[in-house]
Structure formats: structure tokens, C-alpha cells
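W.,

You were right to be curious about this one. When I first looked at the sequence I had no strong expectations either way, so I just let the prediction run and decided to look at it fresh. Below is the sequence, 163 residues in total, followed by the output.
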Amino acid sequence: MTDLKALAWELLHEAQQSLQEQSHLAPTLIAITPNENLIFDIDYEHEDDREEIYAQLVDTATNNNAIAIVTVNDVELDGPPDGSPVNLEGPGWGALAQKSEGPSGASEAIRIVVSGAGFETWSLTCAYFRQNSGIVFQPALEQPDAGAELELLGDWTGSTGNA
């Protein structure tokens, strides 16, 4: 079986490299099946198309007996990833604190959500901000995220009884 935690961290590092090199991140869905990992690069022109595309991919994943789905997205943050205020003062923050936008210094994040039957959904979120011609990543936050898959995938695992 695929080590989901190791996979999520590997995907985070790949996403960070992609952002550094290309300045954008294409959404990705990985369906973990008993026989293979199905990787889908997601492309849509309008936000309205997103739900339909993800629904089709979830159908494909369930038809292939997926035991987990991992999504990788570039998201806009409403606030700090864990909901708590971020303090950018003290040693080590230097120019980062001075260049920040908003309370956390970041308005965007790489968000990886891991969901499946038999375990609680969790996410790995790495906030970042653009500075000059580069991207400054903040430390990633790994946390339980029950219901995160509902935002994008619906109740594909049946955990809320609505599958």
C-alpha cells in the first residue's frame, strides 16, 4: 500500500518546484487503487466546470476501487491555514515580516487533501507569497481536516452517509 503521508510530502515538494519554475500550479488528483496510482492533471477553463470534472474523476476512482484520493491545489487563503493568528515578529523573520501581505504574510497556499475510507481526512497546507520574482514558502501545516473532501469531491467515501 502507498504511504500516503510520504506521498503527500513528496507532492508538496513537487508542487513547490512547479510554482518556483512556472509561477503557477495545475490541479492534480491521484486515485490510490489496489493495483496502481491513477494520476490526473486537471484542466478547466471556467470555475463552473470544476465540479463536473472532479465528479467525473471521483467516478473513475470509485470504479477502479480507489482506497484513497489525494488532491493537490493552489488555493487562496482567507486567513492562516490553521485559523490562528500568525506572529511574524522576532528573530528569523526579518524581511519576511516586512514584505508580508495581510495577517499571515500569505494570500495563497498549496493544499493537499488526503481522503479515503477507514481513516480521517487530513490536509497538508503550505502558505506562500510572491516576492519580487520569486516565491517565499512558509512552513507546511499538517492537520486533520474532516470534511475537506466534501468541498471538492463530495462524500465519495460515504463517511457522512451521503455517498
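Here's what jumped out at me. The chain has a mean pLDDT of 80. And, maybe more interesting for your project: Residues 4-22 form the longest helix (19 residues).

Coffee later to discuss?

I.
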